[in-house]
Write a structure and sequence with these properties.
It is found in: Cell outer membrane. Its main location: membrane. This protein is mostly beta strands and about 675 residues long. The protein starts with a helix and ends with a strand.
Length: about 675
């Protein structure tokens, strides 16, 4: 059976699943009169938040105003208060991002979470990705969709998706702005944006330049990031928006250390110095979204192309040049059937890419003799559907599914060998949402996820050469239940989840200078609790209109093997079981200023090995954030981190057994010491 016929049959199956069988369905006409406000391609922040919170799932929305007056340089700075999202810094913008155990043991880059910018994938076609094109100073909001809850974008990985939304001239809080920031370790950043709306056109451009000498030896970085969009409204029903971005990254790598060195002598690793290890990226991104409002629903068509060039001297000098492109149409329709209200989404995605992957002997950061020359090709065919039906005014049933075919091929140009594998799947979703009052929700759902190995998993290093490993896809069923709400200045967000996984993609490090090897585990379980809450302790304490607010987030991770022949019921290495963050904020009236002490607490360190014999240290660290508006268009802020200069491990790689003979335990990344950043934000 051909690929096309398989996908077609599954698309028809999705349509059957998506629309409940109540007999003949009549879709009412969508009547549009006059000029609709705002933008068709870029809804307002409040509209986007409302759409996200209609999902029967543990979704989270982060308004950019929450970190507008902080030194936000990485994804951690944006998502630190979001439960269930584990983000830890290593150096520069190099991070570990994990949701519900996605990429739990991945010691480099990204896997298991789809990162989107304005709804368009940032990940490469094989699913791998980096974070360098996400510039916090150019983000208006972030929407987090754990697991199968990201079906609205066509994503169905264990970790789900995070959509970083850049501002347009219609959604900015300040039409034009300029930020100047600086701090310890030779850190300085200049960023700004300009925007305008003129007639049927609107445009915005944002850019930043950041330099840091780095906290550790050999961790100097330079980031230059630019994002822009241009929208044009053809008429009341049709609008198109073009996006463009350019990103240059020059990042030295300090390497990983043993636990003792990470806590007591956090210098650069010897291999990082001798190999002048670095990660240098040049990338350009172009995308378009065209929105058409029809008499029956709305059509959105996304298309994109991304070019990325990587020069990455590590154990060898990796030299890659790749191109990723895709198109994703989606149709949304609100309808009425048998007196019941509903909303149906049908969509598809095709995206593909090629990557010329060369490797050389690393001569202190320069190219030596050629050791590998290959081309990586990935293609993805996906169709999905999601239907929300309100059975009662406060009770909704959500059904959906995604069918996929992912193809991975590798050609070794030195030997003439070719390798490849195709992955297929059907991932259903069933959920229920109960809304007893307008701002209170109770939800539960069950989803199936599927994670396909990327080329870093499939091309493992053996004798300093890439070796193809035919890994299986990771499959999981996830059950979650929770509640969220807001009431008289208070709020909560609580979710319990359990994922039963087969073939979980895990890594182990043999030599810290060489990318970790990947294997399919047997039966594993990822389960936990995600909680966030805020409580207004006082109002009018010092002045009329001021507020004192306590915020708490807690993530509990219980990830284990199940009767594994080698590891029994041990915990899976990589993430700490508990992560807590507490903030106490005094906010002056009318946004005139704030002061906020912050406590980050990890009661137990993460295991570094699957045998559970070596773990990172536990720690708590204090911080202080403050800001004051000194003029109507001028805000000054301060961000002090790790006030007590606590020595801790911020991230780690994973190994099999730290006590095994010859085990190399230099897999720990020391956390940043005491640091201070100040900034000025101006609008005009």
């Amino acid at each position: 059976m051909s690929t096309l016929s398989r996908v077609t049959r599954r698309a028809l199956l999705l349509a059957v699943i998506a629309v409940p069988a109540f007999g003949q369905v009549t879709l009412p006409d969508l009547v549009i009169t006059g000029q609709a406000p705002g933008s068709l391609t870029a809804p307002s922040v409040s509209e986007q938040r409302e759409a996200l919170e209609r999902s029967p799932a543990a979704t989270h929305f982060v308004d950019g105003e929450a970190f507008a007056n902080r030194y936000a340089f990485t994804l951690r700075d944006m998502l630190a208060d979001t439960p269930g999202v584990f983000v830890q810094s290593r150096y520069g913008q190099e991070l570990r991002l994990s949701i519900r155990g996605s990429g739990i043991a991945r010691g480099f880059h990204l896997r298991g979470v789809e990162v989107l910018q304005d709804g368009v994938p940032v990940n490469l076609a094989d699913g791998s990705g980096d974070f360098y094109q996400i510039d916090p100073s150019a983000v208006r909001a972030a929407a987090v969709y754990p697991g199968g809850n990201a079906l609205t974008f066509g994503s169905s990985t264990l970790g789900g998706a995070i959509n970083f939304i850049t501002p347009t001239a219609h959604t900015v809080t300040e039409a034009n702005s300029l930020r100047i920031e600086g701090g310890t370790y030779g850190t300085g950043r200049l960023s700004g944006q300009v925007s305008a709306a003129f007639g049927e056109w609107d445009a915005l451009a944002a850019g930043s330049v950041t330099h840091s000498d780095g906290w550790r030896q050999h961790s100097r970085s330079q980031y230059e990031q630019f994002n822009a969009n241009l929208g044009y409204r053809l008429n009341d029903r049709v609008e198109t928006r073009f996006y463009a971005g350019a990103y240059i990254v020059r990042q030295q790598l300090p390497g990983s250390l043993t636990l003792a060195d990470a806590l007591n002598r956090p210098q650069a690793a010897a291999a990082a110095l001798s190999g002048n290890q670095a990660r240098n990226v040049w990338a350009e991104r172009f995308a378009n979204r065209t929105t058409i409002r029809l008499d029956a629903g709305q059509v959105d068509v996304d298309s994109w192309i991304t070019h990325k060039q990587l020069y990455h001297p590590i154990f060898q000098a990796i030299d890659q040049d790749g191109l990723t492109w895709g198109i994703a149409p989606r149709w949304t329709q609100r309808y009425e059937i048998a007196g019941l209200q509903g909303e149906l989404v049908l969509g598809g995605r095709y995206f593909a890419g090629t990557n010329d992957a060369l490797q050389y002997v690393n001569l202190r950061g320069s190219r030596g003799a050629l050791t590998a020359n290959g081309v990586q090709r990935a293609q993805n065919y996906e169709v999905f559907a999601e239907n929300r039906l309100w059975l009662l005014p406060g009770l909704a049933l959500v059904t959906g599914a995604k069918a996929l075919r992912n193809e991975r091929d590798y050609e070794n140009r030195l030997t003439g060998q070719r390798f490849g594998r195709a992955y297929e799947g059907l991932n259903p979703k069933l959920g229920i949402l109960w809304q007893p009052r307008p701002q209170v929700q109770v939800f539960a759902n069950i989803t199936r996820s599927q994670d396909v190995p990327d080329f870093s998993d499939q091309l493992q290093t053996v004798n300093n050469r890439p070796f193809w490993v035919p890994l299986q896809a990771q499959r999981a069923w996830t059950v979650e239940a929770g509640t969220r709400g807001r009431y008289e200045g208070h709020g909560w967000d609580l979710t319990l989840f359990r994922s039963t996984i087969r073939g979980q993609l895990l890594q182990f490090t043999v030599d810290p200078s060489i990318p970790a090897s990947t294997f399919n585990a047997g039966a594993t379980v990822n389960q936990g609790v995600e909680f966030a809450g805020h409580l207004d302790l006082a109002r009018g304490a010092l002045a009329a209109g001021d507020r004192i607010t306590l915020r708490q987030s807690w993530t509990w991770n219980d990830f284990r093997f199940r009767s594994d022949r080698q590891y029994g019921n041990n915990r899976i290495a990589g993430l700490p079981p508990h992560v807590l963050r507490t903030t106490l904020t005094y906010a002056a009236p009318e946004g005139r200023g704030f002061v906020s002490p912050v406590l980050d607490w990890v009661p137990e360190g993460a295991w570094a090995d699957y045998a559970n014999t070596l773990r990172a240290n536990r720690y708590f660290k204090l911080g202080l954030e403050a800001g004051v508006r000194v003029a109507p268009n001028l805000f000054v802020f301060l961000d002090v981190r790790n006030l007590t200069n606590k020595r801790f491990v911020s991230d780690l790689g994973t190994i099999q057994n730290a006590r095994a003979e010859g085990a190399n335990t230099a897999v720990f990344y020391p956390g940043e010491g005491r640091s201070l950043y100040m900034g000025v934000r101006m609008s005009f």
